[in-house]
Amino acid sequence: MKRLWDKGAAVDDMILRFTVGSDYVFDNRLVEYDVRASIAHAMMLRDKGYLTAEEFRQIETGLIAIGEQHANGGWKISLEEEDAHTAIENRLVKEIGDVGKKVHLARSRNDQVLAALRLYLMNEIEVVSGAAKKVIEALEIIVKEQGDVVLPGFTHMQQAMPSSVSLWAGGFVRELRDDVDGLRRTRSRVNVNPLGSVAGYGAGPLDIDREATARSLGFDSVQSPVTSVQLSRGKAEASVIFELVLLVNDLGRLAADLVLFSTSEFSYVHLADSITTGSSVMPQKRNPDVFELVRARSAQIPAWLAESLNICNKMTSGYHRDMQLLKEPLLRSIDVATSVCDIMAHALNEIRFTPESIRVDKSIFAAELAYEMVVRDNISFRDAYRIIAESKPWEGSVK
CA–CA distance from 251 to each of 61, 288, 344 (Å)? Predict the structure, then answer.
């Protein structure tokens, strides 16, 4: 096995394990995208005369086969290979011979990983957005089927004003739509082509066409100047994670409401047995563990956001190996956000409000009575407020 940076000297096994870490595991997600970027790069090299048409055909055919083999479980990246780029190029050379070595011209692992990662992120933004939309759809079904159920609205955890299931669920629908919009806005930082920046200072005297690879891969623009590429490391990642924080925070608050509403003290909702768990000691218990864990998950992604921000904090310009560690908080955040959306969309289908158990305190109509007095008696709201507060009509008949 030959690494892309191998110069023939032996590598200390302990150093290798430490520097590679879990990167080779994470990079299995990037194989599909590295293959795509490699084909686009090879096409550009062909068009600029650095590869013949036949060499490009061999490279393209070989890369497609390697990608398909990986997708079908035929191989995984090993620790010794370090990353997707080495694993793919080694297999390509084995498959088609020395022609495979030509694909690395005008390219570095630095711009390779960014190209693959950004293609991956553009796909994952849509995946997470789609998962969040399923939560929205589940909430909209609740509004349609149970929206007329009366609920008390709370401030300071006290009954405050009249509300409904429609208002309660509708608030979350609106904010989740906002989360999806925010997530998609991060594409402006993701959707730029880093290929051709090489190790951060361009391809020297080589005549390359970065616009061509941008078009081939569907990037909106080319990232320029080339020195900005490494300076941007971590910014797109942090932008995506930040939007995932907002998304999962909203789902955490939704879950917290459902935990509260399902208690015997509230009994606003009934949770189907299929989405609850039991106690090993108390036979009567059915626990809302799924919502408690969603609530807890909302504490994890902010920590990964802080991690991603701090990795590049006060780092000097140019490439540093520290940047490798940006993958883990990013991928974990995507995984957790997607799983939280999936489980919430599933569990919401098993939520039934129980209007017969919902107690609405008469006092929550106090503000409404003050509004009616303003209209009926043509007085200021402040005067109506004081009259209602002093007379306390909720202690008798409200209407």
Answer: 45, 15, 8
Residues of the chain above pLDDT 90, percent: 88
Class of the domain covering 13-105? mainly alpha
- List, as own/partner pairs, every contact residues 114-117 make where C-beta atoms lie below 8 angstroms and the sequence separation is at least 24, other chains included: 114/194, 114/229, 114/233, 115/33, 115/34, 115/37, 115/193, 115/194, 115/195, 115/217, 116/30, 116/33, 116/34, 116/36, 116/37, 116/84, 117/30, 117/33, 117/327
> Which pTM value belongs to this model?
0.92
pLDDT tens per residue, range 94-115:
999 999 999 999 999 999 999 9
Beta strands 192-193 and 351-353, pairing class:
unpaired
Contacts 24+ apart (CB under 8 A), 214-221: 216/39, 216/40, 216/43, 216/44, 217/36, 217/37, 217/40, 217/115, 217/119, 217/193, 218/122, 219/118, 219/191, 219/192, 219/193, 220/191, 220/192, 221/191, 221/192, 221/193
Percent composition of the chain: helix, strand, coil (DSSP 3-state, to 5): 65, 5, 30
pLDDT, tens only, 213-245: 999 999 999 999 999 999 999 999 999 999 999
For the annotated catalytic residues, the residue numbers are 156, 279
Delimit the domains of the chain by residue range. 13-105, 124-207+232-357, 362-395
Distance CA 40, CA 38 (A): 5
Residue 73, amino acid? G
Query: What is the C-alpha separation between 250 and 172, in angstroms, rounded?
Result: 7
Find out if CATH 3.30.2390.10 is the number for domain 124-207+232-357.
no
Q: Do domains 13-105 and 124-207+232-357 have the same CATH topology?
A: no
